[in-house]
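Sample intake sheet
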Amino acid sequence: MKLGLLETTLNDWRLVENHAKRLRAVTAEQIMSVAKKYFIPENMTVAVLDPQPIPTDKPTKKSVSEE
């Protein structure tokens, strides 16, 4: 599974040997730099979720065990 993941996400299954080492080499400063580049107000998307009530006046379907 790991090989398939590397092939689909990084386009090279042969990176299995170096993938963890490369991830550990990333510094906090590099992460902050990328965050400052991409996490800006112009790129923000806001979603407002409005849960709908579950209707209680309709009878529910019987389960297979109740039939």
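Comment: The chain has three helices and no strands. The mean pLDDT is 84.
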